[in-house]
Amino acid sequence: MTDTQQVTEDGPDAQAAQPVEKAQEPAVEADGQNDAPLSQEQADELALKVEASLLTTDRPMTSAKLGELLGGFAIKTIQDAADGLNKVYEETGRSFRIEKVAGGLQVLTLPKYADVLSELHKSRTQTRLSPAAMETLAIVAYQQPIMRAQIENIRGVACGEVLRSLMDRHMVKIVGRAEEIGRPMLYGTTKGFLEVFGLSNLKDLPKVEKSKPGGL
What we know:
Among the domains are: 40-114, Arc Repressor Mutant, subunit A (Orthogonal Bundle), CATH 1.10.10.10; 129-204, Arc Repressor Mutant, subunit A (Orthogonal Bundle), CATH 1.10.10. It has nine helices and five strands. The chain is of the alpha+beta class. The chain is 45% helix and 12% strand. It has a three-stranded antiparallel β-sheet with strand order 3-5-4. A two-stranded antiparallel ribbon has the order 1-2.
């Protein structure tokens, strides 16, 4: 066997023995979310994508959903991007912020611009809730789960039509049945209720002294 033949035959084995350097891949969490640290350029680009996504939807989007849509980013990475955008909005005096609503993120205007927006959207005043609907909705929100008889006892009037109206608007729903004779239905608020009133969850309701069903 010649020297040339020896080199040729040993070549593949010698090459296989050499450690192969692989390109470093971004760290990925067990659930498939990319949790690798971002460069400033990458963070800025992600923030713009988060902003664009939220500006073009009229419903809250969860950080998990945004992370999935934008390339598998971790929830914390998306939340950090939103926090960074809010800091920019505040520093530049913008009229809106990214708020936590119904478990997700949504761009909302600041309360001080409510009057001008109300004037702008006068054509939508017919969608406002009546005083009776607002009163009933408040009772359901604070006392839920609650039976219709209990709501009527608190208000002192029948509320069947009002409850149906609130259910048609997807603000109240049936959440179960009471453990009483006849198994009457129990009512509670919906995710749509949280969205309309800009609440992250029911814990964000204004604090009031909670009374027991049957009297204020």
